[in-house]
Amino acid sequence: MLVWAFLLPSLAVFFLYRVLPLLWNVALSFQQFSLFGGTRWSGFDHYVEMWQDDVFWTSLWNTLIFLASAPIGILLALAVSLMVNADIRGRNIYRTIVFLSYPLMTVAVGIIWRWMYDEKVGLFNFLLRKLGLIDTPLAFLQSFELVLPSVLLANIWQIIGFYMIVLLAGLQNIPQNLYEAASIDGASRWQQFVRITLPMLRPALFLAFVIGIMTSITSFDLVYVMTQGGPSHSSELLVTYIYKAAFELSKLDYAAALTVVQFLLLVTLTWIGNRLSGGNAGAVERN
Amino acid sequence: MAGRTRRILLSRFVVVPTACMVVVIIWNAYVAAHADGVVTGRVVDGSGHAIADATVRMMEQNFTTNSQRGAARTDANGAFRFDDNRSHSIQLRAEKEGVGRSDQRAVRLYFRSQHIDLRQPLVLKGPPQ
Amino acid sequence: MRRPQRYHRAPMHRYPRWPLHVMLVAISFAMLLPFYWVLKTSLTGENIFVYPPSILPHHPQPFYYVDVWYFIPFARFLLNSVVVSVLAIVANVVFNAMAAYSLTKNFAGRGWTITLLLSCMMIPFQTTIVPAYLITGKLGLLNSYLGLALPTFSTIVCIFVYKASFDAVPNSLVDAARIDGLSEFRILLQIMLPLSTSAIATNVILAFIWSWNNFLWPLIVVRDQAMQTLPLGLSRFLSDHENTTGALYAFCIMVLAPGIALFLMAQKEFIRGLTSGATKG
Fold it and tell me: What pTM was estimated for this model as a whole?
């Protein structure tokens, strides 16, 4: 029974902060909760409220758009990791430089990018005007159309290093003799890429995709610091709306219902990603 | 074991934090030795003559606000001295009736109450002719 | 020195290397530009108000950093962040190693436990904030170091990193220790852990980075300014002073510096932690 004693602290933490909250969220979503007591069951009220809530639909739509950071980021990271994987001098330096943005504090990254997007003194407006592409400065973070792509770009900048690392690990697991055999058989480099690299990278690609989905859906810091939800909710994500509903509007029960929806969305997308990869994208060896 | 201990001690995880701590200790010692709050300088007029008995005001600077902290008068050689500067960012302005006022000079220090002797004197500018 | 021939194989299409270098330099430039820009502004205070911005810094001075140190309780924020991170690291190493050690043995319910842990990985922190806040409130830990660190006391990724490392220890060693009469705890401490220094290093780095950068949980749990951690202090500074002073960017640099320094020192462990954790689910 010593085994269970050893497992106890970790299991207690996971129970207290993963399992119990998940279940309590579901319960809360069906209740009218009050911090001062007097909680009562209210059935589907919150879900009906959600259905009629414009901000909810906006945030859901924005979250789905924000998910685009996963495929875009992975494609770019694939290109970068192919370049870094080639036998060139200083590949470790390049790898470090690209990966440097990932372990940084997202709040600081948000502040830096927020300032680069500034309408009056920002770097991007300066470069665009220098290159003659625009005449008047663009208000990136104040415009309804541009705000979400702008935040998306900052997110991709930060996470591309992570995807690159995962893909690099996958690339380095491909045995070299496959390429040798293929080139002896006269396959061109493009054919080698499509027939050898891509299929063998499939697990890594879909693993990166699944993790990317999870990270994008829960990406709170960047939006909170850069736009606070954007010009009237145009950059509001589900996760920021949950935070606002719970801690600014003090509607903990409604926030719980929103969380349930967010979790269902996450599970669905992950399941789809898993099925597309044809099996377990993240299997643990259970020996 | 001695070889392994040596390897651990020389690893970057020990060397870097130790070096940082050494730098921090040396810097704090330097600060402690030089933080006496003394600000000295001179007041001159447009042609470089020392101005005696001018009033120099010292203001403490916050991000956006100033608040008056003290005033001193220059002696016969035009030199003034403050002894109780507690801030790291102050503004100085000298004036004398009938002669003029100097510009507001911002003095930023490396640490609070750093001992500083102004190299450039405060120049009194008379009213425009 | 002659560049060594890297591969001896059947002649492949040799392609020139310099286009790769050009593209990688361009990519590096794009990745490093924000750093350079914020560093330049923290040293000069240029183009906070002035347009057009200058490309090279004129008159660099370190006084914004002095402003940050004194005008905001930076030392206090730093202390809070360090305390919370240390708590998280210590608890992580202890709890994760213990859990991983128990998973290396065969016992009834092992499969279920592993399945449970894997499915807990699917529950991201952001979907637990409302009840986690209520639970922490009920435990009386709001606005305290323990409350800040508690949700991060154990991570599943690191448990599996330890497990992989422990599985690699030869059984003969463990059996010999048992015959010698060592208790399980001492086996863990004196045999398993010393052979798993890379797993410990990985756990320390990952736990530190996650705890150091954590923003949402302190935002929810902290009530007084005295208990704020660095990310929280930074965002409060932004909302108070907006874009009016170069001290904001000096604050950013001061906050990023430990993370960057630690990452550069411990790159290998960090990358290994991410990839092994990722590939092991």
Answer: 0.87
